[in-house]
Design brief:
Number of domains: 1
Protein name: Response regulatory domain-containing protein
InterPro entries: Bact_response_regulator, CheY-like_superfamily, Sig_transdc_resp-reg_receiver
Keywords: Phosphoprotein
CATH superfamily: Response regulator
Strand content: 5-15%
Pfam families: Response_reg
Number of strands: 3
GO biological process, one term: phosphorelay signal transduction system
Order of helices and strands: HEHEHEH
Largest sheet: 3 strands, parallel
Shape: globular
CATH class: Alpha Beta
Distance between the termini: 13 Å
Length: about 100
């Protein structure tokens, strides 16, 4: 597991641009980000035909929330609570890629 090339973005806007240009195999998306939160960023990824096929895993510091069911319904491939176990993170990324 692992051995992936990782690209990083410092904001939702930067992440959207990077997703469009780099076409990553998967996206780890923090719910709480500067500029644009993860929910809005995910919606914009889904609205764009260039990025809507990319699997997204949300990272959240809030633990389990009522919104998790909504996220899954909207197409999120996984939700990981912070702090997270690196093996669990790698397993969810691996699952999103198949």
């Amino acid at each position: 597991m692992g051995g992936w090339q990782v690209l990083t973005a410092k904001s939702g806007s930067e992440g959207l641009l990077l997703a469009q240009t780099a076409q990553p195999d998967a996206i780890l998306l923090d719910v709480m980000m500067p500029d644009m939160d993860g929910t809005v960023t995910f919606q914009k990824l889904q609205e764009n035909p260039i990025t809507k096929h990319i699997p997204v895993i949300l990272l959240t510091a809030r633990g389990r929330t009522a919104r998790q069911g909504l996220f899954i319904t909207l197409g999120i491939k996984g939700i990981i609570s912070k702090p997270f176990n690196s093996q669990k993170l790698a397993a969810q990324v691996e699952a999103a890629l198949v």
